[in-house]
Write a structure and sequence with these properties.
The chain has 410 residues and is α/β, with parallel strands linked by helices. It folds into two domains: 233 residues, Aspartate Aminotransferase, domain 2, CATH 3.40.640; 130 residues, Aspartate Aminotransferase, domain 1 (Alpha-Beta Complex). The chain has 16 helices and 15 strands. Strands 4-10-9-8-7-5-6 form a seven-stranded mixed sheet, sandwiched between helices. A hairpin with an 8-residue loop joins strand 11 and strand 12. The chain is globular and about 65 Å long. The model has no long low-confidence stretch (mean pLDDT 97). It binds pyridoxal-5'-phosphate (PLP). The site of pyridoxal-5'-phosphate (PLP) has 13 residues, from loops.
């Protein structure tokens, strides 16, 4: 029985969500819109199969075919990223980080990662996360003048803290990261290097920004952001750590793998290896630069003054709108973003003084720099005239017609 007949109540909610996705302009930097092929694999009968273990080393019978699925995903990821060892089982982008932490540290030992204010991620040692409860995380940030990573400062902190592990990578940093310098600093203090490329994995796969893989002992990622796969995660490491990492993820941290999701990852890796994906990724970068330039022309202050990747952060300042207000205003005109703490933020993360904007989803719909300029104008008009109903309703109509002009092609 199909979903609509079996469960009308739920099916209607999903239909409304699909309509919402079609009718809004999504600038959430961590989201994307997957292909029909990825969705088909996600919804396939592979969801029925238990497969604890790894290909050819399972704890269940009947696993010959899911072995083929998982091996295909592994082989494709290895080729796509020029990786020595790959684990495709992580349920999300957080679990890979836990697997690395528990592989290289004992509870209470020290790691060094970017703070949340500068754009770090909860799984990089936040006291709210198990990572911060079990391990001691020292933190580095950005230079408050340039809002860029300060490698001299990083080295000083690393020498002082003597971490076992240094974590590079962020959720809201709009600039490129110098992995070579990170590795040199790690080597100098006897630490291992983990690069969390969750946000930028698609750009790395496409080869349009530098890859951390030659420099890092471990690279972790989610698969659903710029990489445009199903919600999930991925661990890449040097061969020497492969066995330890695999055992730490299963049975250490996770249970049985989601082979339907792993199949969908395999599809996404195939898609990401095609020339079209490189064209797409270049366009993601172009659109982000265009959005940044237009917003600056409109008088908004961008953290670090711009972007080298798929995202940018507007800082409204202490006296301006809060991130929460801006998010709500934009949502009311069918433009979806998320609030974001900025480097000098005095407000709590739930309120915050900025918003983060990204171009992966709009670019998937086929937005070029021309449409992106229009989106920047809409965002500007809405945020500058919060009480003007006419401006707001015109913006909503424009957002809706842009969305209808460029629907998602399956
Ligand atoms: C998104 C993200 C993750 C993964 O988050 P999940 O929600 O667990 O998939 C990990 N690290 C960084 C830096 C991220 O931005």
């Amino acid at each position: 029985m199909n979903l609509a007949d079996q469960d009308k109540e739920l099916s209607k909610i999903i239909d409304r969500e699909e309509l919402r996705q079609n009718e809004t302009l999504n600038l959430v930097a961590s989201e994307n819109h997957v292909s029909r092929a990825v969705r088909e694999a996600t919804a396939s009968s592979l969801t029925n199969k238990y497969a604890e273990g790894y290909p050819r080393k399972r704890y269940y019978g009947g696993t010959g075919l899911v072995d083929e699925v998982e091996q295909l995903a592994i082989d494709r990821a290895k080729k796509l990223f020029s990786a020595e060892h790959v684990n495709v089982q992580p349920y999300s982008g957080t679990n890979p980080n836990l697997a690395v932490y528990f592989s290289v540290m004992e509870p209470g030992e020290t790691a060094l990662a970017m703070n949340l204010q500068a754009g770090g991620h909860l799984s990089h040692g936040s006291p709210m996360s198990i990572s911060g409860k079990v391990f001691r995380f020292a933190q580095y940030g950005v230079n408050l003048e340039t809002e860029l990573l300060d490698y001299d400062e990083l080295e000083k902190i690393a020498k002082r803290e003597k971490p076992k592990l240094i974590v590079a990578g962020a959720s809201a940093y709009s600039r490129l990261i110098d992995y070579k310098v990170f590795r040199e600093i790690a080597d100098n203090v006897g630490a291992l290097l983990l690069v969390d490329m969750a946000h930028i994995a698609g750009l790395v796969a496409a080869g349009v920004i530098p890859s951390p893989i030659p420099y890092a002992h471990f690279v972790t990622s989610s698969t659903h952001k710029t990489l445009r796969g199903p919600r999930g995660g991925l661990i890449i490491c040097k061969e020497e750590f492969g066995e330890t990492i695999d055992k730490m993820l299963f049975p250490g941290i996770q249970g049985g793998p989601l082979e339907n999701i792993i199949a969908a990852k395999a599809v996404a890796f195939l898609e990401a290896s095609k020339p079209e994906f490189k064209t797409y990724s270049l366009s993601v970068l172009d659109n982000a630069k265009t959005l940044a330039k237009e917003l600056e022309n409109e008088g908004f202050r961008l953290v670090s003054g711009g972007t080298d990747n798929h995202l940018l952060n507007i800082d409204f300042g202490e006296a301006g709108l809060t991130g929460k207000e801006a998010e709500k205003l934009l949502e009311s005109v069918n433009i979806i973003v998320n609030r974001e703490v900025v480097p000098r933020d005095k407000r709590k993360p739930y309120i915050s003084s900025g918003v983060r904007l990204g171009t992966p989803t709009l670019t998937t719909r086929g937005f070029s720099t021309e449409e992106t300029k229009l989106v920047a104008k809409l965002i500007s008009a809405v945020l500058k005239n919060p009480a003007d109903e006419k401006v707001q309703s015109e913006a909503k109509n424009s957002a809706l017609s842009l969305a209808k002009k460029l629907p998602f092609s399956d």
